[in-house]
Amino acid sequence: MQDAFDLTTIVFLALAVFVIWRLRSVLGQRTGQEREPYDPFARREQGAKPSADMRREDNVVRLPGAERAPAADEAPARDRWAGIAPAGSSVASGLDAVAAAEAGFDPRGFLEGAKMAYEAIVSAFASGDRKILKNLLSRDVYDGFDRAITERERKGEKVETTFVSIDQAEMTNVEVRGRTAHITVRFQSKLITATRNMAGAVIDGSPEAVVDVTDVWTFARTLASNDPNWQLVATEAGQ
Predict the structure, then answer these.
(1) Which domains does the chain have, with CATH numbers?
(2) CA-CA distance, 41 to 58, in Å (whole number)?
(3) Confidence tier at 78 by pLDDT (50, 70, 90)
(4) Cβ atoms of residues 133 and 125 within 8 Å
(5) How far apart are CA 170 and CA 111, in angstroms?
(6) E strands, 20-135, in order
(7) CA end-to-end span of the chain, whole Å?
(8) Is the whole model's pTM more than 0.85, yes or no?
(9) If you placed Cys at 216, which of 58, 118, 173, 238 could pair as Cys (CB 3.0 to 4.6 Å)?
(10) Which residue, among 149, 148, 114, has the nearest Cα to 232 in the 3D structure?
(11) What percent of the chain has pLDDT over 70?
(12) Residue 52 phi, psi dihedral angles, 5° rounding
């Protein structure tokens, strides 16, 4: 029995040595020249080639939105803001400034959020929902909206607004003042809107007609702050 046990032990040891040797020959040893494993969370600019820093091996785990900001003398990819702003335009330069202060800034995500804010603000103004407006407007803009709602309430008027579509939302100006980014967006939308008096008669607009509306709104936010929310700081009617 003891001899059988010893023989079995020797056989398993020999197999273990063989397996380790095969794994070493197949997987090899680290030489410092291996490619880094693919990181599914790493953000990459469209059309951009990996930089020297991305190719260089390091032990830093880069989380989403925490990319290395480009150095001052690095030229951004020519199509960095493709679909948002032409290369070399003032809007593109403004976006470069925003991204330099906050590497995770996503202009497409911003525009999607701006469209949702636009619809929410217009609808809240029509219904007189001050609570929603307070969270989305700067103090000055809120005061103006509040005065208009108060005057409407005094007269017993009501506004009915239905969104049909937001056809376009494009950035027309981007700049950084100190630590605060200001982004101006031109909205083109289709609405059905009507104002009724105390008796319920339509005194402005139409409850059936679809009208084209253009608004130019400016949103602002302190960059690299813990508060991710943008506020509406200026409005004007577009042409």
Answers:
(1) 107-237 (3.10.450.240)
(2) 16
(3) low
(4) yes
(5) 8
(6) none
(7) 99
(8) no
(9) 238
(10) 114
(11) 67
(12) -60, -40
